[in-house]
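Data deposition worksheet. Section B asks for the primary sequence of the deposited chain exactly as it was used as input, without tags or linkers unless they were present during the calculation. Section C holds the resulting structure in token form. Section D is free text for depositor observations; keep each observation to a single sentence. Incomplete worksheets are returned to the depositor.
Section A, Depositor: J.P.
Section B:
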Amino acid sequence: MAIEDVKIPQLGESITEATIGSWLVKVGDAVDVDQALVEVETDKVAMEVPAPAAGTITELVVEEGDNVEIGALIAKIDTEGKASSSSLSSSNSEKKEPASDSAVSKPSDAKKEDKTDEQSFGSSSSSSSSSPGDLMPMSPAVRRLVEDYNLDPASIDGSGKDGRLTKSDVMKAIETGSAKTFSAAPATAAAAATDQGPREERVKMTRLRKRIAERLKDAQNTAAMLTTYNEVDMTAVMAARGKYKDLFDKKHGIRLGFMSFFTKACCLALKEIPSVNAQIDGDEIVYHNFANIGVAASTPNGLVVPVVKDAQQLSFAETEKEIARLGRKARDGKLQIDDMQGGTFTISNGGVFGSLMSSPILNAPQSAILGMHKIQERPVVIDGKIEIRPMMYLALSYDHRIIDGREAVTFLVRVKDAIEDPNRLLLDM
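Section C:
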């Protein structure tokens, strides 16, 4: 027997311990190298710990909810062993959950054919009153996603071992709208379930959620936060995307999105108004001669802000590729501490969820954050005539201790000008 130790990896210079989330395997399971074994959380990031070698799980040293130090032993793998017969047989039992980062077995071809004419994510897709959790065994991570979004797991293609679902499969299906949902239960059944079940539930806050709460409240308590608003006509950007999106994709292998335009516009405005790109350090103001743009992303574990480093040096294509790369890592729970450090300015796009207007909270120690919102057609006056234009409200929250109102308004106007006339981005004007 050759035993390989599984330890908590180094998660960043400032991280000394982590909390064990959900085990994705159990004793006796056969695992492949780099297969996700367990979800762990720190006060900055949630991630999965992969298997250092292939083999069979012989021991789980710690339990879910335990706090462990970096480098601590959490499991053991027999690299010469095979899965026990009890483990193999239990994988087919509906009463036990699978041990890998997978959710459900791949549905049969007949089941797929029965669903070919059903509508996609967002509408009822099944006449059954079953819930996602009633169909097949799932790992804890995937079960939460499927049940939270009321998804039919049979409608999602799995990329895991033996065609099973992974967390990234479910997140991708949610983002693309390809997953189907279960129909709502009848009102009488829902009422009965309400009467029988508990009226409330208490769930311990995760380490990451507690840290998010602390940072947001600290920002409110520390900074003299103020928000200024404007609106931007998206006609020119939408026209540019419509005209060049196919050529852009063909040449660079990435879709041309809105975020690259706003990222480049912010870089241009930060160069002109350096106080927006600065931060307070004690009794000094630190001015950054580079633009590390944080792009806020919502994940099942909470809000994370991966950083596009030196965005002022990147082209549109490079910006889109970096945002897409960080977005995939965030969705798959694979962000590292370095991915989220060093930001000097943040962009938050609440418009993807339908938000029309909001006042974003600063991402300390940064001094400003730009809030993007939903694009909505509205009547506006152009050259004395009323026209229907695709408009977006913009919000800039800033620390009034180092950014004056004139500077904040000027910054937002520069972003507006660059978006309404994208040629400014190419001419650096």
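Section D:
The first helix runs from residue 85 to 90.
The domain at 1-100 is CATH 2.40.50.100 (OB fold (Dihydrolipoamide Acetyltransferase, E2P)).
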